[in-house]
């Protein structure tokens, strides 16, 4: 858990509120957190969802392990400590973006329950919706897909600390949305998420 | 400069583009970087600009040293190294938010030219507009205002490494916008920025 270092720091309250931005956009910002094994289909469904939301006139933005690690988290590796800091920072970025009004689609293996719960807490404290989406796929199926050839490298010992092989994956116990990507079509997955967002009133202006 | 640690990392290109989001919003995302001494008026003008942009139906969001240091950068202090990492991370967050379509208003003392230029480079490489706004105010005037009582503490030796007192401020040599907050009214400052944004075609859809 990161420690607060800076003192003499005060929150500067603006006069434009989150509700003002939500009314401008006709939607409410939120963090959707896709968690699952490498190859489970997290980015695939996020990419498709992004298109579906645009078609509805809704603003979304994708963050994923790969593009974040080339930027904000370029100085982090894959040790347990660095993975935790990786997820913490992404959680904070996503919270800021969701506060700005964006539907943020985060695709991260994020294997540890404690890390995901920390991000959930950050959002709950700020009263920003956090929606955990379990992208569920058996290890056998994910390893068979192996879209980036990473399981093969991990089995050969060329990659260490690989989730599902020599590092654990802790599945969500009570996710807001549970996708079974080895049984559902991509279209069914997207429809399920859009329906859940509508149910939560995130695709319209906030109630007065 | 942060070093790239993670390997086996690839950029996942989505199918929704920055232009798609800009067309949806009727604006183009950009980073506005307000730099200047503590008490120079950075947050004051950003707060007022945010209101003016909302009145025009434009989405903006403010990041500043105080709220960022309570979140994404809570594990950083005020050493030269931590200040550099602070600005680097903010630059990356702002770049992501600007890419999503938001006009991001960053108020940071950001005293070192090298740090600000690093953020500028990040944006240039990604072809995202970066607008440096020099919030210029003499040290005498800023110290007279001393809205948070920090200069008094710094003079008394209770705060170390305070910009302008025992740490340098390196003024921008060629900022996109130069405000003189000890000579201009707040309204004149906001008008100058809005005019500059319009001139850069950021307040309308991108040209086809």
What are the salient characteristics of this protein?
8 helices; homodimer; five-stranded parallel β-sheet; about 210 residues; globular; alpha/beta
Count of DSSP H/I helices of chain A = 8
Number of strands of chain A: 5
Low-confidence stretches of chain A: none
> First CA to last CA of chain A: what distance?
37 Å
- In helices, the fraction of residues of chain A equals 40-55%
Average predicted local confidence, pLDDT of chain A: 92
Query: What is the 3D shape of chain A?
Result: globular
Structural class of chain A: alpha/beta
The gist of it:
The structure is a homodimer of 208-residue chains. With 208 residues, chain A is an alpha/beta fold. Helices cover 43% and strands 13% of the residues of chain A.
List the helices and strands and how they pair.
The structure is a homodimer of 208-residue chains.
Chain A: H1 18-25, E1 30-35, H2 42-55, E2 60-64, H3 65-69, H4 80-100, E3 103-107, H5 113-126, E4 130-136, H6 139-145, H7 150-155, E5 177-180, H8 186-199
Parallel strand pairs in A: 1-3, 1-4, 2-3, 4-5
Write up this protein.
2 copies of one chain form a homodimer. The first copy, chain A, has 208 residues and is α/β, with parallel strands linked by helices. Helix content of chain A is 43%, strand content 13%. Chain A is built from 8 helices and 5 strands, in the order αβαβααβαβααβα. Chain A has a 5-stranded parallel β-sheet. In chain A, helix 2 (42-55) packs across helix 8 (186-199) and helix 4 (80-100) runs parallel beside helix 5. Chain A is globular. The mean pLDDT of chain A is 92. The interface between A and B is large, with 59 and 59 residues.
């Amino acid at each position: 858990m990161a420690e607060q270092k800076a003192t003499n720091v005060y929150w500067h309250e603006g006069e434009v509120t989150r509700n003002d931005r939500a009314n401008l956009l006709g939607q409410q910002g939120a963090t959707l957190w896709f968690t699952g094994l490498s190859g489970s289909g997290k980015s695939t469904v996020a990419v498709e969802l992004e298109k579906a939301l645009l078609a509805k006139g809704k603003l979304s933005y994708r963050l994923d392990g790969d593009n974040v690690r080339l930027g904000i988290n370029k100085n982090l590796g894959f040790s347990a400590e660095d993975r935790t800091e990786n997820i913490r920072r992404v959680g904070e970025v996503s919270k800021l973006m969701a506060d700005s009004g964006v539907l943020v689609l985060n695709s991260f293996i994020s294997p540890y329950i404690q890390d995901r719960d920390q991000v959930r807490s950050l959002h709950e404290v700020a009263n920003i919706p956090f929606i955990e989406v379990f992208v569920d796929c058996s290890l056998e199926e994910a390893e068979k897909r192996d879209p980036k050839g990473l399981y093969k490298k991990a089995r050969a010992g060329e990659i260490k600390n690989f989730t599902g092989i020599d590092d654990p994956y802790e599945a969500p116990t009570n996710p807001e949305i549970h996708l079974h990507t080895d049984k559902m079509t991509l279209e069914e997955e997207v429809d399920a998420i859009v329906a859940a967002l509508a149910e939560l009133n995130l695709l319209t202006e906030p109630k007065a």
